[in-house]
Amino acid sequence: MSRPLRLAPVLLFCLATPCLAQGSMAGMGSGTADTAQLMRIKTTLEKYRDPIVAVREGYYSTLACMEFPAGEPGAMGYAPGGMGVHFLNMNYVGPRLDTLHPQVLIYEPVHDTLRLVAAEWFMPAQLSTTHPAIFGRDLDGPMEGHAPIMPAELHHWDMHVWLWKNNPAGMFSPTNPTVSCPRGARYTVRGGPPRLVMQ
Ligand SMILES: [Cu+2]
User: Would the pTM of this model clear 0.90, i.e. be above it?
Assistant: First the structure.
């Protein structure tokens, strides 16, 4: 049990995992995830459309709005696109994944508000030497932590699921080409995808 606790400071420091997800409910159909199950999860998480509710329940903003304009050799094959702002709940970080308790909620800044677009399941690589899975799909990774909000040493697995915004790249794609961050804003971060690492 000391492992998750030791991770806490690191995770709190970084935390915004550029995660990528793909598709929308309409675009799903790949993999084994079942639409009815995803719809139930979406309904359960609907309350987090209000980011204040998310914060009150332990999902804290990691501040940066992440965009990945282009891929690069040796990195995760992210489709060019955005991810948005990650809100992380450390209470749910551990060696098991639960469909109803994603570790991360993702919001897209739209005018003066934040719009819930995706949920992300996240596990530090040190908690599992094999691909964790959820919805019958393996998480992506392991990959390095996402700069600048996570140290590169924070190797992890993650999976983005675009439950609230259609993703032309796929419902489980880490990035969404329709998501963007405010141009020129202080905390808009545009970068390359994280590197895959060996377990
Ligand atoms: Cu992400």
Answer: no
